[in-house]
Amino acid sequence: MKKLIFSIVFATLPLTGIMAQEAYNEIRAKASAVLSDPLANGMVKDINRFKVDALDYLLIKMREQMPDSSTVFLDNQALAMNNFISLYIKKILQFKDMPKARQIDIIRLFMDASYSNPLFNDTDQELTLGYYVKSESLTRFSLDTDWQKAVTAIVASMKEE
Predict the structure, then answer these.
(1) What residues contact residue 113 under an 8 Å CB cut-off, 6+ apart?
(2) In 16, 24, 64, 115, which residue has its Cα 20 to 30 A from 100's Cα atom?
(3) How many angstroms separate the CA atoms of 121 and 103, rounded?
(4) Which residues, at least 6 apart from 127, have a Cβ–Cβ distance to it below 8 Å?
């Protein structure tokens, strides 16, 4: 019986690692699929365009500045970015009937959480702040974001609200 339990545990360990390594790829593939869908809503496409750009930026910068980092780190950042955006959309929808000033406050909280938690301290602000400064963008966030810290920051900010 003990051997059977150890066999099951050891058999599932490699699968757990594979699933974890695929988080980045899965989030990127889903976002890319939305972008290529001609029937997708324009706002939904904009959100997914940001996701693809943020994930591509993350991968490129990690290869440049953190070549020894693990895929687990990349996956954790991808999952945190996805959670950050999901929470953002949820809050935007939740506050849609609130006064415009209140809606702007919520957007600014998310923008600040993104901007105030850089991952690479990239000096190319034209690239990293491309979405951030574009007022018509729904996802006004910095590409150079430590998404895990940004999620923690926004959750703390929302508790204060």
Answers:
(1) 84, 150, 151, 153, 154, 157
(2) 115
(3) 29
(4) 57, 143
Q: What is the DSSP string of 6-33?
A: HHHHHHHHHHHHHHHHTHHHHHHHHHHH
pLDDT at residue 21, rounded to an integer? 56
49: how many CB neighbours lie within 10 A of its CB?
17
Ramachandran region of residue 37, left (φ > 0), alpha (ψ -120 to 50) or beta? beta
pLDDT tens for residues 93-123? 999 999 999 999 999 999 999 999 999 999 9
C-alpha neighbours within 13 Å on the C-beta side of residue 97: 1
Q: How far apart are CA 22 and CA 36, in angstroms?
A: 21
Q: Do you know the residue count of the chain?
A: 161
Token couple for 119: 């991952």
